[in-house]
Write the structure tokens for this entry.
Amino acid sequence: MNAQLQQILELADDELVIGWRDSEWTGIAPTLEEDVAFSSIAQNEIGHARALYEVAARRLDTDADSLAFDRQPDDYRCAPLVELHLLDWAHTIARRYLYEEADRLRIGALRESGDPELAGIAAKIDREETYHRLHAEMWAARLREEPRFRDAVEELWPFALGVLEPGLRHELARRVGLDPVDARERGSHTPELAELWDVMTEVRRSEPGAEW
Amino acid sequence: MVTGAVVNAEAVWAALGEIPDPEIPVVSLVDLGVIRHVEVAEDRVRVEFTPTFLGCPALEAMTRALAERITQLGARPEIAVIVDDSWSTDRITPAGREKLREAGFAPPPLRAAGATTLVQLQSSAFRCPYCDSTDTRLENVFGPTPCRSIRWCASCRQPFEQFKTI
């Protein structure tokens, strides 16, 4: 698999898994408005994953659902940040904020890529992500002085750096206002991913090859 | 009409103009401007369209509806989903904007030069589709579908859905 396909799958896997994690707040978010917001953001992120899997699937001669659900957990390329099963709001918002800050940099880079198909999708994704960023920025501004939120951002910071290739990390540190540290790199997974995968693929695995 | 074509492009546009948006059926896919291109060659009709949002769950339903309508015209459909930034809500037709407003969906503001900001969304430049007041405020950037926000009109004390600018 070439480097570009690898990059598409990393991005698609990140979007699928963060979408899955964000959807876990549907019905149990602390306010009704956040219930709506997290459900909508999750739907968008999974939509981005689908568009990217479709590009990868054409180039690998398979289909998007197979890439999303038929691989083994170890074959996913997602970053550990998106895998974490976060059970409190401060960490959840800290991850949304850090993820959006990291994501905007790589989507921006992809818009400039020489591949017109990828550049087009990146531009469309970028336009939609505007609303996710507004949501994250609003929460980050609201919680900035809260010790629980600041601790959560610091705790997740090495994970956030691991979302990006090394060349983009300095800019992320500048935007977030934290010093670069050793990143929690992608390549090995947290134990949380296998648990998520079990649930995420359960229905599909129950009837292999079925048309849903 | 192209020689040998079973149908002309005008008839295709008219037929597609009858397909309602699956989530906001007061407007058609043509009103929304998401049908980008129609090309007729002999018995084949190629239609290019763009989803409003990539996460739109109605994507398959729309592709199917387009294909069915072309088949009804006696042609072979070829539906291509275009995924890039060439569509924006600015392409919703004037008739489409009016239909949205009448149904209680405030039509989207035109695309600004840069990305939408929170300050813009919190401004009062958004008009209530019920009473026309601009005394409205943002309740939630997100709404029942990815393409809509929720606003509140302080004048007629009515929440309403605001189509997002994309």
Summary: The two ends of chain A are 29 Å apart (CA to CA). Chain A touches chain B at residues 33, 36-37, 39-41, 43-48, 50-51, 119-121, 123-128, 130-131, 134-135, 137-138 (CB under 8 Å). Residues 3-206 of chain A form a domain with the Ferritin fold (CATH 1.20.1260.10).
